[in-house]
């Protein structure tokens, strides 16, 4: 997330609009944004509806056995078509800004 923030201007110049989504309540996301200085959009999905739609729910994987989202990055075009996906099983492994800023190619399911 820090890498995304560090390269946010470049990503936006390439037409990439960044948003983070988590099961955290809005207040927790606001606190994280303020604490870390993130300026991109954070979305709250406390019922995990969107997270479940994209098959990203990791039940009881949080520190207090709460449900959390699997680490993932998606690039969607203006029509909402998924153009690039990065999924991992480890919270610590994330796509780099360079991965996200490459010209996306269509994903197939």
Explain what the structure shows.
- This protein is globular.
- Strands 1-2 form a two-stranded parallel sheet. The protein has a two-stranded antiparallel sheet with strand order 3-4.
- With 109 residues, the protein is an alpha+beta fold.
- It has one domain (2-101): 3-Layer(aba) Sandwich (Glutaredoxin), CATH 3.40.30.10.
- The protein has helices at 2-6, 8-13, 26-36, 49-53, 97-101, and strands spanning 19-22, 41-44, 57-58, 68-69, 72-76, 82-87.
- The chain contains 5 helices and 6 strands.
- Helix 3 links the parallel strand 1 (19-22) and strand 2.
In CATH's first tier, which class applies?
Answer: Alpha Beta
Helix count from the secondary structure assignment: 5
Q: Would you tell me which CATH topology applies?
A: Glutaredoxin
The class by helix and strand makeup works out as alpha+beta
Broad shape: globular
Report the helical percentage.
Answer: 25-40%
Specify the oligomeric state.
single chain
Largest sheet: 2 strands, parallel
Radius of gyration (Å): 14 Å
Domain count, please report it: 1
| Strand order within the widest beta sheet | 1-2
Strand content: 15-25%
**Low-confidence segments:** 104-109
Can you say what the CATH homologous superfamily is? Glutaredoxin
Q: Kindly state the mean pLDDT as a whole number?
A: 78
């Amino acid at each position: 997330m820090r890498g995304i923030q560090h390269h946010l201007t470049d990503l936006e110049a390439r037409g990439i609009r960044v948003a983070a989504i988590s099961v955290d309540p809005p207040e927790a996301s606001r606190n994280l944004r303020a604490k870390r200085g993130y300026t991109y959009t954070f979305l709250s999905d406390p019922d995990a509806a969107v997270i479940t739609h994209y098959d990203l729910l990791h039940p009881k994987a949080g520190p207090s056995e709460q449900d959390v989202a699997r680490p993932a990055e998606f690039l969607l075009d203006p029509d909402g078509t998924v153009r690039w996906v990065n999924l991992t099983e480890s919270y610590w492994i994330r796509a780099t800004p360079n991965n996200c800023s490459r010209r996306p190619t269509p994903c197939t399911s």
